[in-house]
Structures are given as structure tokens and as C-alpha cells.
Design goal:
Chain A: It is found in: Cell membrane. Chain A: Keywords: Cell membrane, Membrane, Transmembrane, Transmembrane helix, Transport. Chain A: Pfam families: BPD_transp_1, BPD_transp_1_N. The structure holds two protein chains of two kinds. Chain A contains 14 helices and no strands. In chain A, helix 13 runs antiparallel to helix 14. Chain A is globular. In chain B, helix 11 packs antiparallel against helix 13, helix 16 runs antiparallel to helix 18 and helix 18 packs antiparallel against helix 19. In chain B, a hairpin with a 2-residue loop joins strand 6 and strand 7. In chain B, strands 1, 8, 9, 10, 11, 12, 13, 14, 15, 16 and 17 form an eleven-stranded mixed β-sheet that branches. A four-stranded antiparallel β-sheet of chain B has the order 4-5-7-6. The chains are: A mainly alpha, B alpha+beta. Chains A and B meet through helix 2, helix 5, helix 7, helix 9 and helix 11 of A and helix 1, strand 8, strand 10, helix 9 and helix 15 of B.
């Protein structure tokens, strides 16, 4: 829900596999690691639910208020309180909630009066679409920039990239968003304004996946697809700018580390081309920690960016989570938090698997 | 060899993906909206349901007002006057308990079928049986799930009879029926879409009507996407056909984005501009600004459990310490007006006098008389957003001048309400919107508190301030029961005058709804309640 798509610099995953005596077979090692990660998922999610649940109960907002409204007579308020089980001790409430989610029911949001699962299915695709495009742009620009800066350490290029990253990282997203709207939309008129599509296409494409660009393609409506993509450009660009700065900085740091290594000196002494050294050797070795950085960046983007969503009128998970939180709509908050938690865990798992693919030592 | 050029090329290629895509595209950006489509930019994430018997939120009420018709309504040119919308005429029995409505011939649902008495009786009963948030507006006449079949009935194709439990002021009943909850839905369509519920009954089409419509108003709901957009199409069979074929309401949370959209021509009417933006476009001939008084008040609630605040002199001193005009002019020049009585201007019987203005010396003298010449310290709860936080600071400065030191407690809106509902505040700055278009809506809230105990059933605004007022409550109830409309209005005027002087409420401001449209867009008719904003006569030149 934050706009800071970063998590503290994640350490490179896993320890180095113990070399030497009695090395277990690669297959077994992989299986153990994966099953270990899988086993940790429920524990992580349990912790998440526990903390969120209790924070939700100490918020000084009466959750009944959102259900019956400010005007309801006291007997209606009490009935709603009983129905929610709020008269029970906290641990009983928590136990009930656990039982409920174990049976796959996230409960009903009091703000939208829909099942939380339905709400998430409605809001998540918009965020998914935005986050994915933002990540693609950030990777395509951020990695080359980082590598470039590392190979020219200390030069004006390096300083320029550093300044750019600093700006991208420290300019608040809402400032970037508004500047972008002012220039590209209001001043030059080359990109459309806030929203996911132009009114011309409103209601023209059936909702199948909720990912508008994909829905337009599925419907074979090329115009609607272009329109949706144009509407994505600004919010995705702004979010990408932020992630890009982080990715470029991390890439630069990883690359510098590799370029100082002895094998690079050896390769140079052997007369390998600079391109081979940088991309073929040094960059390949940064791939492992970089995957973790990308996975965490992606997870950060997927939890929704409330400021970007507000400025660009993007109906995503960030807005949903924020509005629910401000109304003490705990089912919605817990449901959305669980989804975000699940995203983090799954992406972590994915980067672990990728790490095994990228690191030949595990093969 | 990695050269500068190769990296530049790689970056440029990546950066140009969206740009390249943009070049071959239709220029949707910056185009004017089509002539037969009207685009509103509005914060619409308050919509929970479009079912008029369930919805109670601002945007949904406004949509209900344009999609459905009621038995009676009030014209925005003269909001106190009642006129028939679906009803041609009505009669009241001598005992003021039986109300007989005769329907007009002509109104038709979007399906093409005429509106019948059966539809009207079904709709009002449906509101009672569903018993959702706005149901109390109708239920207060003694209807409930068990008796509604006999008390609300269609006696022939054009006649509907309502029997109230007690003698009822006709204006009170009619104003209540003019609320969005009095909307008439088409029985056949709604019941064809009813779903079974878990108790063996059905939902009276509630799940379907949340997203669709079955009304006789000028528009019909085509599509609603939560927090994204609402689309309405003209009802081809309406007896009041609209000029514009399609209305699109786009959710734009950010006022700056709304203004940009308006300036680009992508938006025809922006609904949530803030004061300084309104100022900016006010003098621009390309735009026209419309104002409407909204039935929403901002006031201070002084908790009477607080030993100092319960002294009449202290309450009066606070009322005389505030610089209402300066607050209004400097902080909310276009979005609020000074208002000091509990009935907002625009509602029948509203008192528009302003007896209070900043009189520091007088206020100080009153404090001294109460034994607090050196002032005292007290907490103020308020919503931390704009513009309330600025207003709170102005109040802090005003009260400091007479020696009252405010301890500022900013919080979330619902947190502040939760606190006042539990009577735990000292002073709280709160907003209150009227529920329906009758003086009783606010009179009940601000001047009835028959049981001041902790376990009271009816926790009105007066109860939340622990204000024990048996006498004033009786007067307010008497006004409710008065069947002569003029006498009734006069009684409310008296109650408000007394209330201004003695109540622990410092009523300060009334909200103004602002709509900014492109100059070519005309005819958006705004009323004192959200369900009175009409799109029927909107035109685009």
C-alpha cells in the first residue's frame, strides 16, 4: 500500500551450498530447499494475520459504524456488534476468524457489502496490470543504467546516473505524477488523462480478466487495447521511475563488486573483449542477487500504490486497502493484507527457484 | 566492448516502447467529449449499492434521483413546495392517518410499461421489508415487516393508500416520501431478478438492483464499476425525456486531476474542486461555476459531562469568541457559508439569522462571570484532513484570545465520530448531513434527548453531547405532530432561536456544493439534497 516500492536491501538469498565432502545430490537439495520454503508459508501468513488482526482491534474506530451508519438506533448497533462477535474476547474472535479463512472465506467487506474475495478479484487486476508494466519498464531502463554507471565508475556518466537515481528515489510520487499529468496531458496533450480508458471505449469491452489491455486483446478490439495502453503509460511511467532508481542503484553496486573480483582481472589479462567481461561474466554473476531485488520490487508494486492510484484515478488494491483501513473494515484489511503477504511469499519462492536455475553450483 | 553508445541505444529502445506505441495511436487525448455524452468528474467511491431502498450515500442518492421517480418531490426553484411526481393528487383523512394517492397517467418505466399503483405499493413495502440503512425514514410512520401488507396497499390501478400508526403531519410524511428511499421500482422486473436467500425467502431483487435499475426516471443504469465509473443511458420511455443521451460519471479522487480534465475538455462538469481551484476558474469565461447550499453543517459539540463546558456562560463565551466570517472568508470562501442554526438553509423552516460574531471582550466577561477569568485547558477532536484542520487551528487561535487553551487532537473522521458516540470528547468538531428533506431530520438529532442515561436507545447528537433537555425535546416532538404546515414551520423557527442561545452546539458553517462546468454546458439543476440534483435539462452547445 505504500508508494515506496523498496524493501530494505535484501541480502542475496540462501547461503552458499556447502562444498566438499558428502555433498547431497542436487535434486535432493533442491527439493529440500523448496519444501522448506513451502513449509514456512503458513507460518509467515499466520504471523501476518495475527499482527494485523490485533492492530485492527486497537484502532480507535468502531467497526460497527461502517456497517449500520452513524444514524442507527442503539439496538441496531448492539445487534450488529453481536453479529460480528465483537462482544467475545479477542482470542475467541481471532480463533473464529482463523477457522473462517481456513475454510476459504475471507468474510464480507462492510464498506462495499461484497465478499472480500470478490472485491480483491475486482481491484487486483488493475494493480497487477500497472505493476507489471512498471516493472518491465524499470528493468529495461534500470539495469542498463546501473551497468553503465558501474563500468564508468567516478565518471560524469556515473555522477549523472547517481543524480538521476537520487531524483527518482527522493521526488515524491505525487509530485512526479502531477508534473507528468501537467506536461504530457494538460500541456502537450500527447497522453490521456486519469482513468483506465477513454469514455469512448467505456463499456465497449467485456470484463473477462479485469486486466483491461488483455481483455481488449481477447475481444480483438485493437483500438481499445491501444487506448488502455496509453492510459497505462503515465502511472506506469511514474511508478517505474521510482523502482528504476532503486534497481539501477542496486545493479551498480552488485556490478562494482564483481568488476573488482580477480576473475575479471584474469579475463582481462587473457584479452577478452570488454563486452564479454561485463555482460558474459560480471553481469551473469550479479543475476542472483538482482533476481531478489526485482522480486521484492515487484512485490512492492503489486501491493498497490495509493498515491499513484489516487492521482491517476486507478481503481487498484492500494486505494481499497487504504479506504478499508480508515473505516476499520477489518475483513477487507485482513483479506487484502493476506493477499499481499501471499504475493511476497510466492515471489520469494520464485526467486529462490530462479536462483537455483541461475547458479550453476547447484546444478 | 561496452561502449557508451550501446548502452544509450539499449536504454533508448526500452524507453521508446511506450512512445513508439503512442505514435501510431488514435489521438484520444485532448478530444472534446461527444455531443450526446456528458462526463462528470466526481469522487464516486462512496457508492455501495445503487438499490434506492438500500443506498444512503451521496452519489448513489443523486443517481437514484435521476433514475427513479417518487410519489412527490420538491422543485429546486422553491424547495419547500411539495408537488406530485408520480402522484397527480393526494388526500388526507380527517384523523391525519390515512393518505390516499392518485397516480398520474403517463409515467413509464424504462421497459415501456406504465407505472401502476401496484408498483408503488410494492416499492414502499420493499423498503420496509428490506430494512436497510434509509428504511427508518419510512418506518417512523409505524410500518414494519408484519403490518406493511395491510398498511400500504394498492386499491386499484391508480390508487395507493398509506395508513400511518398515529396522526401524522402531512408535510412530514410527504417530505419523507420525497426522499430517495421513496423511489418506485418496477415490480415485475425486480421480482424476475430476485434471488433465493438462505432463509428460504428471496432478496426482493436486492442483489440485482445493486448494479442495475428498474425505474421510470429520465435515465437508466447501464453500468457501474466500483471506484471507476457509472454510466447512465436515457430512458426512452420517460415522460420527462432528457436532452443528453448518456451520462458518464468518472471517479477522479484527486481534485487537481478533475481540473486538468476540465481544462482539456475530457470532463464536462467537475464536482469536487477545492476552494482555491474554484477561485482560479471563477473569472475564466471558458467555465461557469454553480453553487448550491448542501444540507450539511459543521459544528462544535461541547460535551456537557465536562464540568466547565456545562456552564451556560462558558458555552456562550465560546460562541462569541469565534470569528465566523474570517474563518469562512479565509479558509473556505467558496465551499462553506456561515450558518448558525440547526436547520440548514434550503430546508423548510430554516432560520438564517447569525446572532453570533466575534466579541472578545464580551466573551472574556462571560468567562470571568463563570469563574474562569484565567481561562482553562480543554481538548478538541477534529478530522485531520482539509479544510477541517485549518478551521481547527483558527478556532484554537480565537479561543486563545479569551484564555481557553485547546489541546489539539487530530484524527480520522470515523475515529472522531466513534469518540463522540461514546461521549468521550471534550469539544469535537463534526459534520452532520440531513437524512431527509424535513425539518424533523435535524431537529430530532440536535434537539431531542429524552433519555440521557448511558444505555439510552436513541443516541442523538444531543445525547452525544450529554445534553439533558426534557422540555426542549417535548417542544420538538410537538412541532413534529403539528398538522398545520405553517404553524409547524413557525414552531421550528422558535425552537431554533432558543436552541442557538442555550445549546452546547456551536453551529458554524454550512457546506456549499460547487459544480464547475465548461461554459457550453448548461442546465445542471442542483438542489439542497443530493437526490435533487437533476440531469434532465443539461445541454451541450
Amino acid at each position: 500500500m505504500s508508494d515506496t516500492a523498496t524493501s530494505p536491501a535484501a541480502p542475496p538469498p540462501g547461503g552458499q551450498p556447502a562444498g566438499g565432502r558428502q555433498r547431497p545430490s542436487a535434486m535432493r537439495l533442491r527439493f529440500q530447499a523448496v519444501s522448506g520454503t513451502l513449509a514456512s508459508i503458513p507460518i509467515t501468513l499466520f504471523g501476518l494475520v495475527l499482527v494485523t488482526f490485533f492492530i485492527g482491534r486497537v484502532v480507535p474506530i468502531d467497526p460497527v459504524l461502517a456497517i449500520v451508519g452513524d444514524r442507527a438506533p442503539q439496538d441496531v448497533v448492539e445487534a450488529a456488534r453481536l453479529q460480528l462477535g465483537l462482544d467475545q474476547p479477542l482470542y475467541v474472535q481471532f480463533w473464529r476468524y482463523l477457522g473462517q479463512i481456513a475454510s476459504g472465506d475471507l468474510g464480507r467487506s462492510v464498506m462495499t457489502s461484497n465478499p472480500v474475495t470478490d472485491d480483491i478479484i475486482r481491484f487486483f487486476p488493475a494493480t497487477f496490470e500497472l505493476a507489471t508494466l512498471a516493472l518491465i519498464v524499470a528493468v529495461l531502463i534500470g539495469i542498463p543504467l546501473g551497468v553503465w554507471a558501474a563500468t564508468r565508475q567516478g565518471s560524469w556518466v556515473d555522477q549523472g546516473v547517481r543524480l538521476f537515481c537520487l531524483a527518482g528515489h527522493s521526488l515524491p510520487v505525487f509530485v512526479l505524477g502531477l508534473i507528468s499529468l501537467l506536461l504530457f496531458y494538460a500541456h502537450w496533450g500527447v497522453l490521456p488523462g486519469p482513468g483506465r480508458q477513454s469514455i469512448f471505449y467505456e463499456g465497449m469491452v467485456d470484463t473477462r480478466t479485469g486486466i483491461l489491455t488483455l481483455d481488449a486483446l481477447l475481444a480483438g478490439d485493437w483500438g481499445a487495447f491501444q487506448d488502455a495502453l496509453l492510459h497505462l503509460a503515465q502511472p506506469a511511467g511514474v511508478l517505474a521511475m521510482f523502482s528504476l532508481a532503486y534497481i539501477a542503484r542496486m545493479t551498480r553496486a552488485f556490478m562494482l563488486n564483481e568488476l573488482k573480483s580477480e576473475y575479471v582481472t584474469t579475463a582481462r589479462a587473457k584479452g577478452l573483449s570488454r563486452g564479454r567481461i561485463v555482460w558474459g561474466h560480471a553481469f551473469r554473476n550479479t543475476a542472483v542477487p538482482l533476481v531478489t531485488v526485482l522480486a521484492m520490487t515487484y512485490a512492492g508494486l503489486l501491493e498497490g500504490a495509493v498515491l499513484t492510484e489516487t492521482i491517476f484515478s486507478w481503481p487498484g488494491l492500494g486505494q481499497y486497502l487504504t479506504v478499508s483501513l480508515l473505516n476499520a473494515d477489518m475483513n477487507a484489511v485482513l483479506g487484502a493484507t493476506l493477499v499481499v503477504g501471499l504475493i511476497y511469499v510466492m515471489l520469494n519462492l520464485l526467486s529462490d527457484l530462479l536462483y537455483r536455475l541461475l547458479d550453476p553450483r547447484v546444478k | 566492448m561496452l561502449t557508451r553508445r550501446s548502452v544509450l541505444l539499449a536504454s533508448a529502445a526500452a524507453a521508446s516502447v511506450p512512445a513508439l506505441a503512442a505514435m501510431g495511436m488514435p489521438r484520444s487525448a485532448g478530444a472534446q467529449t461527444p455531443a450526446n455524452v456528458l462526463v462528470f468528474a466526481k469522487q464516486i467511491d462512496d457508492i455501495i449499492s445503487l438499490d434506492p431502498h438500500e443506498a444512503f450515500e451521496y452519489t448513489a442518492s443523486e443517481i437514484a434521483g435521476n433514475v427513479y421517480q417518487k410519489l412527490v418531490t420538491t422543485p429546486n426553484s422553491d424547495p419547500a413546495r411539495l408537488e406530485g411526481e408520480l402522484a397527480e393528487k393526494w388526500e388526507v383523512s380527517a384523523d391525519n392517518k390515512t393518505f390516499t394517492f392518485t397516480l398520474k397517467q403517463g409515467p413509464k418505466f424504462a421497459s415501456g410499461k406504465p407505472v401502476t399503483a401496484e408498483d408503488v405499493a410494492f416499492s414502499l413495502s420493499r423498503a420496509v421489508i428490506l430494512n436497510k440503512s434509509p428504511a427508518f425514514i419510512i418506518n417512523q410512520f409505524g410500518f414494519n415487516r408484519d403490518n406493511v401488507a395491510s398498511r400500504i396497499r394498492a386499491t386499484d390501478a391508480r390508487t395507493v393508500v398509506l395508513e400511518t400508526a398515529e396522526p401524522t403531519s402531512p408535510s412530514f410524511l410527504l417530505y419523507c416520501l420525497s426522499a430517495a428511499v421513496g423511489s418506485v421500482v418496477e415490480k415485475a422486473t425486480v421480482m424476475a431478478n430476485a434471488q433465493k436467500d438462505d432463509k428460504g425467502g428471496d432478496d426482493l431483487g436486492n442483489a440485482w438492483l445493486k448494479q442495475n435499475s428498474a425505474g421510470s426516471g429520465p435515465y437508466a443504469v447501464r453500468q457501474w464499476k466500483a471506484s471507476e465509473s457509472v454510466m447512465l443511458d436515457a430512458n426512452p420511455n420517460s415522460d420527462t425525456p432528457p436532452k443528453i443521451r448518456r451520462i458518464i460519471m468518472r471517479h477522479m479522487a484527486d481534485p487537481s486531476a478533475q481540473l486538468l480534465g476540465l481544462q482539456r475538455g475530457d470532463v464536462d462538469i467537475a464536482r469536487n474542486l477545492v476552494a482555491d481551484q474554484v477561485k482560479q476558474v471563477e473569472k475564466d469565461p471558458k467555465f461557469s461555476v454553480q453553487y448550491a447550499r448542501k444540507a450539511s453543517l459543521m459544528y462544535l459539540s461541547l460535551n456537557q459531562k465536562h464540568p466547565i463546558l456545562s456552564k451556560p456562560e462558558v458555552r456562550q463565551a465560546i460562541k462569541l469568541a469565534l470569528d465566523y466570517d474570517a474563518i469562512q472568508k479565509n479558509i473556505v470562501p467558496t465551499t462553506y457559508a456561515v450558518h448558525q442554526s440547526f436547520l440548514p438553509a434550503g430546508l423548510p423552516g430554516a432560520l438564517t439569522e447569525h446572532p453570533f460574531s466575534k466579541k472578545t471582550a464580551e466573551a472574556k466577561a462571560l468567562l470571568a462571570k463563570a469563574g474562569h477569568a484565567d481561562g482553562f485547558e480543554v481538548a478538541l477532536d477534529y478530522f485531520s484532513g482539509a479544510p477541517t484542520s485549518d478551521i481547527a487551528q483558527a478556532i484554537q487561535a480565537n479561543l486563545a484570545e479569551i484564555g481557553i487553551r485547546l489541546q489539539m487532537l487530530p484524527g480520522e473522521q470515523r475515529a472522531v465520530i466513534t469518540k463522540t458516540r461514546a461521549r468521550q470528547h471534550d469539544i469535537a468538531m463534526v459534520r452532520w448531513g440531513s437524512d431527509y428533506f424535513d425539518p424533523h431530520s435535524n431537529a430530532e438529532a440536535f434537539s431531542i434527548n429524552l433519555d440521557n442515561s448511558e444505555n439510552a436507545k436513541n443516541r442523538t447528537i444531543a445525547w452525544r453531547a450529554s445534553w439533558d433537555i426534557p422540555e426542549l425535546s417535548r417542544k420538538t416532538l410537538a412541532a413534529l405532530k403539528e398538522t398545520d404546515s405553517e404553524k409547524r414551520a413557525a414552531m421550528y423557527a422558535d425552537i431554533q432561536k432558543e436552541h442557538q442561545q442555550v445549546s452546547p452546539f456551536v453551529i458554524m458553517l454550512q457546506e456549499i456544493e460547487v459544480a464547475v462546468s465548461r461554459a457550453a454546458v448548461k442546465g445542471f439543476d442542483m438542489g439542497p439534497m443530493n437526490d435533487r440534483h437533476s440531469y434532465t435539462n443539461i445541454t451541450k452547445a
